[in-house]
Amino acid sequence: MEDSWKKAIDEELDVFLKGKRSCPHISKRLLVYSLEWLSVGYFSALYMAGKKFAKNSLAGKCVSDNMSEANAFLEDFFVKAGIGELKLVGESGVRYVYRLENCSGCAGMCPVGKQICYFEAGIIAGFLEAKIKKRVVVRETLCGGLGDDCCEFVARVN
Ligand SMILES: [Zn+2]
User: Fold this and answer.
1) How many angstroms does the Cα of residue 23 sit away from the middle of ligand 1?
2) What is the mean predicted confidence (pLDDT) over 91-97?
3) 101 CA distance to ligand 1 centroid (A)?
4) Which residues on adjacent β-strands are paired with residue 140?
5) For residue 10, what pLDDT band results from cuts at 50, 70 and 90?
């Protein structure tokens, strides 16, 4: 696993230094890879940070508690923040499934055998917790880090 992270960092650095391909998100990725490579548990810190931000500040900016309006607000936020195009693709009362296209964290990256979009998962979790007022756990099931062409997040309401 460590070797694949080192390879991902080296590849991104090559692209960054040689400018072979232009990618506006490359420095963010380098930071994420490097921190993960250096420190175990960095991802749960990212998830908690995203969750805290969404719960304490983002959710308050969405006045509606109606879930379809709240989800539209969340999708709009992802675009405006430059994270990517988020779309709710399924829901069943206790579960919400989102797809994220062109994710700034992982789109087109070299796969590292692991999902990496924990900050984004945390944002969804915190936002939903604030709106539903129940505990929500979000797991990323598809990711560029796993070699997928988009991210998928499954939110489970407990
Ligand atoms: Zn991802």
Assistant:
1) 16
2) 93
3) 9
4) 153
5) confident
Best-predicted range by mean pLDDT (32-36, 44-48, 90-94, 152-156):
152-156
Please name each of the domains of the chain with its CATH number.
42-157 (3.30.1380.20)
The conformation of residue 150, written as its DSSP 8-state character, comes to S
| Mean pLDDT along residues 2-18 | 74
Residues 105-124: tens digit of each pLDDT: 999 888 888 899 999 999 99
Calculate how far, in angstroms, residue 147's C-alpha sits from the geometric centre of ligand 1: 9
* Residue 89 buriedness (CB in 10 A; 0-12 / 13-18 / 19+): exposed
> What is the DSSP-derived secondary structure letter of residue 110?
P
- Looking at residue 40, the DSSP 8-state letter turns out to be T
Q: How far apart (Å, rounded) are the C-alpha atoms in residues 101 and 120?
A: 12
- CB within 8 A of 91, min separation 6: which ones? 67, 97
Question: Which pLDDT does position 154 carry in this prediction?
Answer: 98
CA of 117 to the centre of ligand 1 (A): 4
